[in-house]
Design brief:
By secondary structure, this protein is an all-alpha fold. It has 19 helices and six strands. The relative contact order is 0.18.
Length: 521
Amino acid sequence: MDSNTLQILIAMVIYMAAVITIGVVYAKRANKNSEEYFLGGRSLGPWVTAMSAEASDMSGWLLMGLPGVAYWYGLADAAWTAIGLAVGTYFNWLIVSKRLRRYSVRANNSITLPEFFSNRFREKKKVIMILAAAFILIFFTVYAASCFVTCGKLFSTLFGLDYKLMMVVGAVFVLLYTILGGFLAESASDFMQAIVMIVALTVIVTIGTVRAGGLGAVIQNAREIPGFLEFFGIATPVVENGTQLVEAGKPLFGEAAPYGVLTICSMLAWGLGYFGMPQVLLRFMAIRKEEELKRSRRIAMVWVVISLAVAVFIGIVGRQVFPVEHLTKSAAENIFITLATSSLPPLLAGFVMAGILAATISSSDSYLLIAASAFAKNVFQGVCKKNATEKQVMWVTRITLLALAAIGIVMALDENSVIFSIVSFAWAGFGATFGPLMLFSLFWKRTTKAGAIAGMVGGAGMVFLWKLVISKLGGVFAIYELLPAFLFSSLCIVAVSLLTKAPSQEILDDFEAVRTGNVEV
């Protein structure tokens, strides 16, 4: 290991030590009981709520996946996705956060998403709880795999070591940290990591732009590539066996492909996913006071807009600075790493690389913790062993974490995995499974238990059907699976709710109490 690599490693070790310290500090409190471990006792302040929600949501794809899309295809795909995410973030904080915080208290002080849905409909047989927990386990395992891929790519690129070994090392670190500190440690470290992420993005885009010869040079280079700097067109790299061809030192691109209204709607549909994202929705439930959500919304929006815009532009800048460095779609996701390691002194580059590690840890610990809580709290204690002690629940949680991490590691073994693609599927899964149900549960009192079940199953099923079968037809069917699945889930909820018996008076009373604010929060 040479001096430069050693300095990068030292910087990243310092960062990881800080993260572990946070876990140790919160470990004692987190392990008092399951409410403290899974929801932090509803004690988050507005800054931690906002920053941890966004950091846990964005994950490594913000620093690797999104710049990679911009580097490979140009502005359109990345920009419309970013716009959809920003709009979705705003409306999620605006219309969902306050009512969910209030309703989760009214619904028997629910501390997990499956528990909230189950208590919202006052079910006795826990069908909704089991289904919701099962879908969380499925999609968060996929999500965790994407984070492990990020770890593997980061460490193997930086240190020239085997991808699989580095991926496993990163996964083990995340697992140990999650087991140690629980929700409070996760949220506190996410706050720190959100700051690291936005600083890293800002530093790299600034240095990259200067290195490229200024903003004018970046724009001029992008304009020379057909469709690269268009909102209504998209660049088409000329590839052979998955590798972009190069001629006279320049990457080859074909004619710009059209980018129609349907494709734009497909990318904007990313914003719909927010209404069903457990890692974000739990922060709404965990804030200490409902009145502080307004401040959290403003903080979150500033962070999101800056981060998304900068991440997209890093991909554009990267194509000017390193036009032929990354010639596959998967390799394009390393552009952030390449810019950082080639533009900064090794020690500083290490701290910037910690931004990717920050994004990965902040997301994967959230995913693993929420998935484990879904099984331990909602299936094990909620259904299988209702008299389970807090100690038993905590042990089952840790065993579940180990199992989920192992499955995620197996799924992440392919080093050619594209982070953006993995995340997009899991995002669609959560958005379509829980998004419509969350909105209808909070705002339509006629929603029934049967409608809720139909919405979850219909949304999740359509994500798989559209992704694996219908999208292969091409044309108008090649849209992002979240959009049709979200609409189909909504249709299922409305249709089945209207065809089944109206909710009981107790359920209606809960709804009215939440709607009018007659709930102690």
